[in-house]
Design a protein that fits this description.
By secondary structure, the chain is α/β, with parallel strands linked by helices. Helices cover about 35% and strands about 20% of the residues. The chain has eight helices and ten strands. The strands form two sheets. Strands 1-2-10-9-8-3-6-7 form an eight-stranded mixed sheet. The protein has a two-stranded antiparallel ribbon with strand order 4-5. Strand 9, helix 6 and strand 10 form a beta-alpha-beta unit. It is globular and about 50 Å long.
């Protein structure tokens, strides 16, 4: 079934697909408002999942500028962003650095255990964290967080277990959709948009 999340000012709707029928809309908005940390997988979330590899290693990854701007806005607005990925790549370090992401965990085999460690380090509760993943190795992290997200082209098993599935594909704005959803629920999005009517905000993409 489809649901809409409305920001507190009453303007702007973010469509999402809700799979947990017991996860009422008002409960979702309350959980979104509590979030202090959003962790993202890379391949299949911040990229379309393509792996471009030569004999010397990974050549490149394709990232989305809208995701990049969304991440910059989130960090500027007080929402912490983390990357938790099973792969290791210098490309990920470069992307994280240019966007200002300071929390990067790579080569992770058990994302639930890594998430618990991260929450302890940041002194956050499970309910204050969200995670977006697209494949089976992301499911353990879903059990740890207050809200779990998936892109619309995630594995069927992930879609079935995610609290919210956004209407964007991985690498095609899925991360941006999640960030907008969270910031709208917190009542911050309209002010963010208004700030751009006066000039650039220096955000990286």
């Amino acid at each position: 079934s489809e649901m809409c999340i409305r920001d507190r000012s009453g303007s702007g709707l973010m469509k999402a697909i809700q799979h947990n029928k017991n996860f009422a809309e008002n409960n979702l908005e309350r959980r979104l408002c509590n979030l202090q940390l959003l962790a993202l997988d890379v391949d299949g979330v911040l990229t379309d999942g393509s792996l471009n590899i030569s004999n010397d290693g990974e050549i490149f990854k394709s990232f989305n500028a809208k995701d990049g701007l969304g991440i910059s806005i989130a960090l500027r607005s007080g929402l912490q962003i983390a990357i938790i990925t099973g792969r290791k790549s210098g490309i990920i370090h470069q992307r994280a650095s240019e966007l200002g992401i300071k929390i990067l965990r790579e080569g992770v085999h058990d994302k639930a255990a890594e998430f618990h460690n991260l929450l302890n380090e940041l002194h956050l509760s499970n309910e204050e964290a969200a995670y977006m993943g697209d494949d089976l190795n992301d499911l353990p992290a879903f059990n740890v967080v207050g809200v779990s997200f998936a892109p619309c082209d995630a594995a069927n098993e992930v879609i079935a277990r995610a609290d919210v599935v956004v209407d964007k594909k991985g690498g095609k704005g899925a991360g941006r959709s999640v960030i907008e959803t969270i910031l709208k629920a917190k009542g911050q999005w309209n002010e963010i948009v208004a700030s751009y009517t006066f000039g650039g905000q220096g955000d990286k993409q």
